Amino acid sequence: MAKKHLVIDPITRIEGHLRIEAIIDENNVVTDAYASSTMFRGIEEILRGRDPRDCGLLAMRICGVCTGTHYQRSIEAVEHAFGVTIPKNARLVRNLMQGALYVHDHVVHFYHLHALDWVDITEALKADPKKAVAEATKWASVSGQLPFNASESVYKQVQDRVTKYVKQGRLGIFGNAYWGSKGFKLTPEQNLIGLSHYLDALEIQREIGKMMAIFGGKNPHPQSLVVGGVTCVQDIKNPARIAKFKQILKLARKFCKEAYLPDVYMAGTMYADEALEGIGGGLGNYMCYGDFNLDDLPFYDSKKLFPSGIVKNRDLTKVYELDQTKITEDVTHAWYEGSTNLHPFDGETKPNYTGFGKKENNIAYLDTKNKYSWIKSPLYNDERMEVGPLARMIVGVAKGDERITKYVTTFLKNGNLPTKVLFSTVGRTAGRAIESEMMADIMMEWCDELAANVANGDLSTWTEFDFDKVSVDTQGYGMAEAPRGSLGHWVKIKDGKVVNYQAVVPSTWNAAPRDYKGRLGAYESSLIGTKVANADQPLEILRTVHSFDPCIACAVHIIDAKGKELGVYKIDPTGGCRA
Amino acid sequence: MVDSQDMVKKVFTQKSARIDTNKGENYYNNLFEKAKQRLSTLKKQAPLKDIDMVDVIETEGINRRDFMKWVSGTTATLMLPPMFEPLVAEATELMNRVPVVWIELQDCAGNSEALLRSASPTVDDLLFDVLSLEFHETLQAAAGHDADRQLEDAVEHFKGQYLLFVEGAIPMANNGMYGTIGASGETFHEHLMRMSKDAAAVIAVGTCATFGGIPAAAPNPTGAVGVMDLVKGKPLINIPACPANPANMVGVILHYILTGQVPELDSLLRPKFAFGYRIHDNCERRAHFDAGEFVEEFGDDGAKNNWCLYKVGCKGPMTFNNCSIIRYNEGTNWPVGVGRGCIGCSEPDFWDKYAYQRPMAGANIKAPTGGVEKTVDEFGLGLLTATAVGIGVHAVASAVAGKKSEHNEEE
Fold first, then answer.
1. Contact at CB, B108 and A206, closer than 8 angstroms
2. Which residues of chain B neighbour A39 with C-beta distances below 8 Å?
3. Which of A513, B166, B232, B262 is deepest in the core (most CB within 10 A)?
4. pTM of the model
5. Where are the alpha helices (DSSP H) in A375-494?
6. Which pairing describes strands A377-380 and A473-482: parallel, antiparallel, or unpaired?
7. What tens digit of pLDDT does each residue of B209-220 get?
8. CB distance B184–A363 less than 8 Å?
């Protein structure tokens, strides 16, 4: 039997537009894989020439999912350039908003974007609700918890509701999925637990959205961050607002401990063979920029919740210090001109769309020998890296961070799992769950810290600066972490205007195409060796790609660093220029 | 939730809010008759989902009284007189008769995320019981060819019946190469045209789909445009804002079910029930504007006392939207609430027209001295009427010029 060429476009349950092409051999094992983004907006180009104080609101629109993260990175890049250190209240508010975003993002990702790769909804309808209670109790007890739902009647209600939905003939958003695939391994009761938590999580995420709105005004796209601090004075002044934040946080934390982690134990155990084989492990190089300032020292001096660093070849005994000057981007296989490999401050790129390769039977195939994606290939010290929650956990452990090590080792010990399971699709999913629990725990402390600071009479939320002086000729970067991984915004400013802006985002690192040496990106690499049960239902490919939580609109952008050309620069080719 | 519905009703029925769409008794009587006929036709149609909405509403822990309260608030939100309440209730129960196809183009998924935060009805009700959501890339289980088939099947099966929700702008430069979708590599433009062909109505959600939004901001590297620049000869509704408020998405669907028509629209095709008045007209900091009390710098004493944000860049006086009333995330907060001020995100080209930390130059807005509560409403009314006239005049001028109409905040 010959090899087969699979084309999956659209990859759904992600943010943005992603296409995966995979070659599978006669045993249905993936031998080659290509990741491509098919949408481009050019937001960095749009930022050029603008007032640096306005960048945050615009840069935030890079993504509506990890919405507040780009906002904060952009504001921080300008603050770094201006040398402004924000007050304690502002730091805590930002930490709380970002923390809420992490928990929100991970919960939505696991249940609404990823769960349907693990959970077969049609099987859930065959479950015995009573047995489901016992099953849920079993998995919650792994970490000494009671289950989020221990009521037979609730499981019955969920079943009734979805049965009714299924019986009407049209499945809506659940239609045409890979139901019944041999790739699904959970029992009917386990599937019912997953389905039930899918519905619970819809409500939980709506509540967590309110946490971000309390200090941010709205979610998505909050509005309270400004260069120098935050604006939400009345919301930190009012103890009832912090109390409300904390009340929702408690619910979110309960859900993480009683549903999310137990479900990951459940899925991890049922898919343990794959995890132990390292299916979906990919590159094995992990990077973290570091994030969440724990004190009020100036930029990049303060202690972090997530320490920065690099781990290579899955070797937890060695960790390399991060040096931002070693980051470059390569465009050999991306739809941009040239094959430059330059640092974000010096990068230079222009769109050069060369389209698809051959077309057959109304299917267009990527021209994989040449250019095939709008995403560039970032490199760290000329090596490919994976970023994300798992990378944060791995770097944290390798660096000997006490808090992270405690959460990771407790997870592994409770689940009776060896460390190597982390280097897999299951491990990537577990890393996100571990991080959610840790984040929810520490946010309780930050809430108290904020309340105490305000109660002591500190209402300062903004640091004054002289814009005309600090914006003459400067540059800075906001390098930290987003829920999906390492995120950096680099900005150059001259005479109060942005002359160059560049963002290298988590999904650029992970979803990138091959580089100039032909080395694979993180998605591509993670798919090699994956066996699909049924070539017409590439469920296993979706599961691994989804384990990265793809965020493709974020990943696609354009850079241009020829600051001196401002004013004469014209995007080539142009379209509808107004300025 | 129910309490916030009371609040919504109160604000929507006050004089300043009501005036713009009050068409007089004849208008509403005619609309009422039309809606009644429409609902009885819909009722005869086989439901797309065999679910009794009355059951759903009751089993979901909402009793009839709370439901009617919600209905009453929603009727007010839609700027309809109270006599429409029974029809709105009926329309809610018939929402599952209307199939929805949601496509994403040059977007950030912010509007999809906003829909996920919908509070009334809640998102699980929307997904499972209320909407017949046939296609939604961010939420649906199927991928690749199976997703394509699902979409084609929905469009074929519900030919002429479905509402097409579009999120994201459309890149037109270089033959649309900046966005392709599906195995065949169809451009976003081709995709939009194919999907809208048999739609009953097209609803552009969020500022990218309505006016081009951020990708269309200068220098518009990809030649991005909004849906209304491309889709012609179809009922088209714009629900701008970044992201659009889910309450307005639900409102539009309800109105469509109620009347079979698009709601009354302004010259920018925005439903007047949501965009018929300015942020400024119902702002909680309005009294400070009238009293001349302004935040001068973030974090100053004015900021600590919740004074007006106009001088730190609030665009509330030039922005039409109902955020100051319904707010976000189940009424939790809104931008003016967190002391940042409105950025004007429901207005065309706002990224290029406005700076966000400075007031509009020459906006020519002066606070009346010694404002008291009574004049707050009257003042808002005056502004609104003047602007409404401005919009009309400008729309005619734009139509003559043959370009996208946009009102000018100076008028």
1. no
2. 105-106, 178-180, 188
3. B166
4. 0.89
5. 389-398, 402-414, 425-455, 467-470
6. unpaired
7. 999 999 999 999
8. yes
